[in-house]
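For consistency, the fold was encoded as tokens, as this record shows:
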Amino acid sequence: MTGFLFELIFWLVTPVWLLLIFAPHARVTARIAASPLTVIPVLVVYSALAIPVLPELWAAVRSPDLDGFRDLTVLANGAGAVWAQLIAWDLLLGQWMFLEARRLGIHPLVMGPLLVATILLSPFALPVFLVVRAVKLRSATRTTQATRTSQATEVTKATELSEING
């Protein structure tokens, strides 16, 4: 049963990841990405895996040390529970990255590989995304400042012209 639940986790999140990566402009993708409820099925599986090893899980998180964590992950349900938690976190992180990318106008051809990297190795993908995000934010700030300066100049010129024409 543990093996089945472990595999089920993958199939529960795959449709969401496929939408984020391959259908970034679809309305349904934006709605799904905005919902934290996407992880609920994974958390149900997490619970099914975690409850049988709850004493070991509690010991590992109550007083974290390497040996306690090793003891937990030696158990099939313990390793499965840790995996489910990781998958749920990665999915929420990917959804946030997707929404931020849309908000900032980061091109899907940039985000697709970053989202795949998030699925595989999120601790490496997140810093890369944060750099891309910072660059985009800096660029957007410069554009906004230039637009405001241009608008202020036009207003000043219009004011001067109206004073001259009196």
Notes: The mean pLDDT is 91. The helical segments are 2-22, 27-33, 40-50, 54-62, 66-74, 76-104, 108-165. The chain is about 85% helix and 0% strand. The CA atoms of residues 4 and 80 lie 10 Å apart.
